[in-house]
């Protein structure tokens, strides 16, 4: 089972020109609780190739959302930016195997 199979939606977007934020929306409290306990910040950091201390994590139980923010590898809009809106970061996390 992948993370995308378990949750309602995974979305990523710019959080300014230097950061990307990834939101995991859970449609049920039990899914949020399971994912909150099972999803390790260090694993997500490794997935994106950032040190764990460079990844910010926010678990928001009232909204059933887990949010990660990480520094962009290049500044938004620079000549080397391949994802100007930060929208494709979600795909990596969506495909993360949870088994």
Break the fold down into its secondary structure elements and pairings.
Elements: H1 3-6, E1 9-14, E2 19-25, H2 29-38, H3 41-48, E3 56-60, E4 65-71, H4 89-94
Antiparallel strand pairs: 1-2, 2-4, 3-4
Mean pLDDT: 93
Strand content: 25-35%
The backbone outline, from C-alpha atoms, is elongated
Number of strands: 4
Amino-to-carboxy terminus distance: 6 Å
In DSSP terms (H or I, runs of 4 or more residues), the helix count works out at: 4
Helix content: 25-40%
Q: Mind describing the biggest β-sheet?
A: 4 strands, antiparallel
H and E order: HEEHHEEH
Spans with pLDDT under 50 lasting ≥5 residues? none
Rounded to the nearest angstrom, the radius of gyration is 13 Å
Major beta sheet, strand line-up: 1-2-4-3
The count of domains is 1
Structural class estimated from helices and strands: alpha+beta
How would you explain this protein's 3D organization?
The protein is α+β, with helices and mostly antiparallel strands. Helix content is 28%, strand content 25%. It has four helices and four strands. Strand 3 and strand 4 form a beta hairpin.
